[in-house]
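Report of the visiting student (M.T.), summer placement. My assignment was to run the structure pipeline on a short list of targets and document each run. The first record concerns Broad-specificity NMP kinase.
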Amino acid sequence: MKKLIMINGTMGVGKSTVSEQLSDQLMPSVYLDGDWCWKMNPWVFTEENKRMVIDNITHLLNAYLANSGFRYIIFCWVMHQEPIFEDILSHLHGDYELHKISLICSENVLRSHIMQDVQKGIRTVDSIEGSIARLELYKKMDTTKVDVSNLNASQAAEQIAGIVK
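After the run finished, the structure tokens were exported:
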């Protein structure tokens, strides 16, 4: 049976990096980052754009679920509220085993991750406090938690692979 692995977590926790590593460890797999569907310039958050992004995500996930070449479908995105999961899942078709994984970490580790991204020009310093404030949301969600505070991306991916196999 196909396995849909949905990985969420606050900005900067390492979702994209861990998902890339996981895709290398689980084969045959396909990996979709929800942020790719928001790549617009300027970035404008409207209900119309939000609906378009969800439509794009669910279209791609359904295509991956229908494709016989993939066993593991890895999807990562912020998804900080249960209704976001529910909205996406309500549009998916076919049989699959669902794994909802939340990446969590300590505030100090998150601050360090984001500062590394700031140095690379990927994020801005003003994003740190908002991301830290959202950490608690993920701890309360109906997901399997993977604490990446003391893990590198490959180790976190190995832990997730062990959960879903």
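The chain has six helices and five strands. The domain at 3-164 is CATH 3.40.50.300 (Rossmann fold). I thank the supervising group for their guidance throughout the placement.
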